[in-house]
From TrEMBL:
Belongs to the nitroreductase family. Residues 10-186 form the Nitroreductase domain. InterPro entries: NfsB-like (IPR033878), Nitroreductase (IPR029479), Nitroreductase-like (IPR000415). Its cofactor is FMN. This is NAD(P)H-dependent oxidoreductase. Keywords: Flavoprotein, FMN, NADP, Oxidoreductase.
């Protein structure tokens, strides 16, 4: 079996983490860099990622996460927060980054910048919010796969109260919203779910070749 499939077969949504095992700083940096390099629409990365290890913050988050033990037992809690609304500042900042990174005059990028603005700035706030959440999930998938390659366990979590997370982490004033959480660490020997067979649709049911 190729490593591509081996990694995906090995990983599962870890239900019980070993609270005594920590992800090393080196491996954490690899996970974050893999996430930073993730694809996103137009390359805009309209989100921010919070890496939480503070026991007091994790303790506050657990009750508003359906009291799931992963929040306090996992080595790190990664909160992906989407930008809820945006204007020209997001796009202009990206175009400046392109200019600086590729050593291209900003004036030569104006056409592309105007194109992006024509497609994005007239969207409603609700539509912008939905679009930025979609971008978060691309980054989430990249972090999960990078973790599997390093044999680091993860559990993606939507079972939490976004409003409470936003309050605890001070996200509202930053126009951010906690959209998904990833617990990162190492599985406990007591987690029986690690032994379950992976249940997925068959290829015949899932794929159509045209």
């Amino acid at each position: 079996m190729s490593n591509v499939l081996k990694n995906r077969t090995w990983r599962y949504a870890t239900k019980k983490f070993d609270a005594n095992k920590r992800v090393s700083d080196t491996d954490l940096e690899l996970l974050l860099e893999a996430t930073r390099l993730s694809a996103s629409s137009y390359g805009l990365q309209p989100y921010h990622v919070f890496v939480i290890t503070d026991p007091e913050i994790k303790a506050k988050l657990r009750p508003v996460s359906w009291n799931q033990s992963q929040i306090t037992d996992a080595s790190h809690i990664i909160v992906f927060a989407n930008i809820t609304d945006f204007g020209e500042e997001l796009l202009d900042g990206y175009m400046k980054n392109v200019s600086d990174t590729r050593n291209i005059p900003e004036e030569s990028l104006k056409g592309y910048g105007d194109f992006m603005k024509s497609k994005l700035l007239n969207l409603s706030e609700e539509t912008k919010n939905i679009w930025t959440i979609k971008q978060v999930y691309i980054a989430l998938g990249n972090m999960m796969q990078a973790a599997a390659e390093l044999e680091i366990d993860t559990c993606p979590m939507e079972g939490f109260e976004s409003e409470a997370y936003n309050e605890i982490l001070g996200l509202d004033e930053k126009d951010l919203n906690a959209s998904v959480v990833l617990a990162v660490g190492y599985r406990s020997d007591e987690d029986e779910t690690q032994h379950y067979a992976k249940v997925r649709k068959s290829k015949e049911e899932l794929f159509t070749h045209i």
